[in-house]
Amino acid sequence: MSARKLAMITFRVLQLVFLALVVVGVLFDPGFPWWSVFLPLVLAYALITVVNRWNGGAPDAPGRSPEPVEVAPPVTGRWSALNSPADRTPSHGVHAYGQTFAIDLVAEPEPGARPGFRALWPLARRPRDFPAFGAPILAVADGTVVRADDGQRDHLSRTSLPALLYLMLVEGSVRELAGVRRIVGNHLVLEAADGTYALYAHVQRGSFTVREGDRVRAGQVLARCGNTGNSTEPHVHFQLMDGPDPDTARGVPFTWTGIGVPRNGEVFDVPEPVPASPE
């Protein structure tokens, strides 16, 4: 087990210890000072901060190549970008889970097709109300499927203020404690020939067309876009990493052939890939 994997496990254990101390403090009179309850939480975040720096979590870590890896786009059709590394890194606010250069994509087939955020009502929407739901997700390079994790249900959207607060204050914390699988939801990891690993997160349950160990070609359909894990609405979460385990991997910068890296809010079109000639 790597030092970073051990640190992530310790991080979650310390969080559980903090919650246990809170419960004990509420139900009983334990006799320890109130401030000591927060020590496990302080240690947890101090540990993860140190490990991120020591293990090269920052984009300027020694030995990291600043050159992006060129791959094909993971989708076809008309999409727009959210949380793009073209605007900031880490794009999702943290280096954890290999997300330094991650990007989110939402389908924009035509104006108004994608339901917008609402303050109060409707509280949540069904996944099928969003045009991204069920859209094919494509292999960005020739490679081998090293992870194909299915089984988590596609949940309702979190696109109202109450639902978003629930995600941030309750659901997100529970998923963090449960581990990376509950954060990325159903997911697939593709190992490319150059040694980089492409992660596709929040995949639709039951949509996988490949299994672990399968060899795939660039442009091949791997699965379909869903709304599993720590997700507000159906979207494609894509990132490149230097290892297959998001718990221990570091993010790798990418660029998509013919597109580059779209900025936040940028709408772009990806044509259907040309099928490879049979060998």
Please outline what is shown here.
By secondary structure, the protein is an alpha+beta fold. It has helices at 3-27, 39-54, 161-178, 180-184, and strands spanning 69-71, 77-82, 103-107, 136-138, 143-149, 187-192, 197-201, 215-216, 221-224, 236-241, 251-252, 254-256, 267-270. The strands form three sheets. Strands 2, 3, 5, 6, 7, 8, 10, 11 and 13 form a nine-stranded antiparallel beta sheet that branches. It has a two-stranded parallel sheet with strand order 1-12.
Please describe what this structure looks like.
This protein is an alpha+beta fold. The protein has two domains: 3-54, no CATH class; 69-270, Glucose Permease (Domain IIA). Helices cover 23% and strands 20% of the residues. It has four helices and 13 strands. It has helices spanning 3-27, 39-54, 161-178, 180-184, and strands at residues 69-71, 77-82, 103-107, 136-138, 143-149, 187-192, 197-201, 215-216, 221-224, 236-241, 251-252, 254-256, 267-270. Strands 2, 3, 5, 6, 7, 8, 10, 11 and 13 form a nine-stranded antiparallel sheet that branches. Helix 1 packs antiparallel against helix 2 (39-54). Residues 55-64 have low confidence and may be disordered.
